[in-house]
Design brief:
9-stranded antiparallel β-sheet; alpha+beta; 28 strands
Length: 461
């Protein structure tokens, strides 16, 4: 291979391309550039209710109703992608405008013909159409026209690249959208077993199959998995035989269903999951009630979402609070009761004159808040207190939270198995639980354990 002629031809091609580019987009002074730059479009994103994209063989129509974007004929649209398009068109600035003298009658030379790609934007009162021509010589910009304006402009390629996508790219990739604080109810149904939970003031409570406090960490992880569940592929069932199709894919009745209800939504959302995909075992079929499309989604995530045992979501700690929420703690042990409470920014107890050591108090409350549960009894069975040593309790711990008059109470039963097991009764949760050995240590605390540390003397220093 003769490398010198090849190198020469390569440099010549680059030079010609640069020359053409300089002719078409000649270097301008800052003053000239400022004069020739102009806003092609300046439309507030919230004013646009229809977007039409004609880049591929099948045009794409996006419609907004009640602040929700849909891909006409294909269901929910990818609102993040649409927001990206509307951010461009809210202040679309051309790099420069070509003079009419150099373009008039030569539109085809710049790529403008009957089948040129277009972007249509509709507001309630106006319609705007951008027509895209060829790329400039260096490929970093593109020629565009605004319908009704004979002038040709040069625009960076970013908007074009955002629009030049396959139809599925504009579909919503997520199964469901929600904000945690807007949810008021959810249920998980697996093999005719239903777990239902209600949400109020930032806390989840199980209502079915029994009433119980749900674990905030478990719930946040579960909701995060659901929120991040994305579609792998879209399948259009034959609408004339839709029920037969859903049945064949295991979606009627399905292996499990998740229902979500939001405070700001009229109707709940029902998502049903079906069989694993043949030859793609890592995927499962999924279907949102009321839609005409079936999705495939990650099977492992679906299996994690379809919780079939209520114990997996219930609070596995004796108390439900954050340290900063606690206003008062009362402990009864050996038939003696004492308490400490928050007084403005300090902790006090009646038997000690000075404020208690804040760090010691908060460390104790943190340990109390993390007091775990070894196991649960069946909350649907009738309790016999004597069976758990609760008829003559060993002790009791009460915790009051800010703006809550009713305390959380743990009553500790006697050790009936000689050092092997303690049972506790939790109010207002109304459950009996097996307690860890740590409970015996917690009952040994007395006010003197929280005395403030003495100030250092000169000798100590």
């Amino acid at each position: 291979m003769r490398w010198k002629p090849t190198l020469f031809l390569l440099l010549a091609a680059i030079g010609i391309g640069a020359y053409v580019s300089l002719i078409e987009v000649r270097w301008l002074t800052p003053e000239e550039l400022n004069q020739q730059q102009r806003h092609l479009l300046s439309i507030a994103p919230e004013a646009i209710h229809h977007v039409g994209i004609a880049f591929k063989e099948a045009p794409i129509a996006l419609q907004r109703e009640n602040d929700i974007w849909t891909l006409q004929g294909y269901g929910r649209a990818d609102e993040a992608r649409i927001d990206g398009i509307l951010r461009y068109t809210s202040r679309l600035m051309a790099q420069r405008a070509l003079s009419l003298e150099e373009t008039q009658g030569r539109e085809a030379h710049f790529g403008f013909h009957d089948n040129a790609p277009t972007l249509d934007l509709h507001t309630r009162s106006d319609q705007y159409t951008l027509i895209f021509g060829e790329a400039t010589a260096l490929g970093t910009s593109r020629y565009v026209q605004l319908k009704g304006d004979p002038q040709i402009y040069i625009l960076p390629t970013g908007l074009y690249e955002l629009l030049d996508q396959e139809l599925d790219t504009f579909r919503d990739p997520y199964i469901v959208h929600f904000a945690n604080d807007k949810l008021k109810y959810l249920s998980i149904t697996v093999a005719n077993k239903k777990i239902a939970l209600s949400h109020d003031r930032g806390r989840w409570k199980m209502t079915d199959p029994f009433e119980e406090v749900a674990d905030a960490v478990h719930m946040n992880n579960w909701l995060k998995t659901l929120r991040q569940l994305t579609t792998d592929t879209f399948i259009a069932p034959n609408l004339e035989n839709k029920n037969e199709t859903l049945h064949a894919l295991g979606l009627d009745p399905g292996i499990g269903t998740i229902t979500l209800a939001s405070k700001d939504a009229v109707n709940p959302i029902h998502i049903t999951f079906g069989n694993r995909v043949e030859d793609q075992n890592h995927l499962r079929y999924a279907y949102r009630q009321g839609e005409d499309w079936v999705f495939t989604v990650n099977a492992e995530k679906v299996d994690a979402l379809l919780v079939d045992q209520a114990d997996k979501l219930r609070l596995e700690r004796c108390f439900d609070f954050f340290t900063g929420e606690v206003d008062k703690v009362e402990i009864t042990a050996n038939k003696k009761t004492w308490h400490m409470e928050r007084n403005q920014r300090v902790w006090v107890t009646p038997t000690i004159e000075n404020p208690l050591d804040k760090r010691s108090v908060e460390s104790f409350i943190e340990v109390l808040g993390e007091l775990g549960i070894e196991s649960f009894t069946d909350p649907r069975k009738e309790f016999v207190q004597a069976h758990y040593g609760l008829d003559m309790p060993k002790g009791q711990i009460k915790v009051w939270l800010t703006n809550n008059l009713d305390p959380q109470i743990l009553t500790i039963g006697q050790d009936l198995l000689q050092g092997r097991k303690y049972w506790g009764y939790l109010e207002p949760r109304n459950v009996i639980v097996e307690l860890p050995d740590l409970i015996e240590h917690l009952l040994m605390f007395v006010p003197a354990d929280f005395k403030p540390l003495p100030a250092p003397t000169k000798k100590d220093i």
